[in-house]
Amino acid sequence: MIRRECQVILNIRLKELPAIHGQRPVTWKSLVIPSTANVRTEDYRGEGDVVHLSVRVFGADTKMEYKSVCNVCSKREGKKKGKPSLLDFHAASNVITASDDGLVQVKFKFSCYPRHQSLNESAYS
């Protein structure tokens, strides 16, 4: 089980991502992550060389999709940061520029335990 305190780190190589279906091939230069309490929102002016990250969270046992924190965690997290989200990303900005080799690193923590979502849930997937 992933605890709330555990940070998840994703290393994504933008150079290895395929172009969007129907679009000309593009070399992605930046990744736009969701703005959360620990991420400053930056204007990226909608450049065509950025790709947006979307993360869907499912229960490992129930296979249900979860999109928000439970009421208990909402009260706890909301006291510290405003409106909480299930995933709390950690970055200086919501636009992460790739290194020369095309690598971006995305860090986040869960704001709610799986068991809070459902008593039958042991982990997220």
Summarize the structure in words.
It is a single chain. The protein is of the alpha+beta class. The chain has one domain (7-16, 26-117). The protein is 12% helix and 25% strand. It has two helices and eight strands, in the order E-E-E-E-E-H-E-E-E-H. It has helices at residues 71-81, 114-117; strands at residues 7-13, 30-32, 50-52, 57-58, 65-66, 87-89, 95-97, 103-110. Strands 1-8-6 form a three-stranded antiparallel sheet, with no helix packed on it. The chain has a three-stranded mixed sheet with strand order 3-2-7, with no helix packed on it. Strands 4-5 form a two-stranded antiparallel sheet. A hairpin with a 6-residue loop joins strand 4 (57-58) and strand 5 (65-66). The protein is globular, with a radius of gyration of 16 Å. The mean pLDDT is 86.
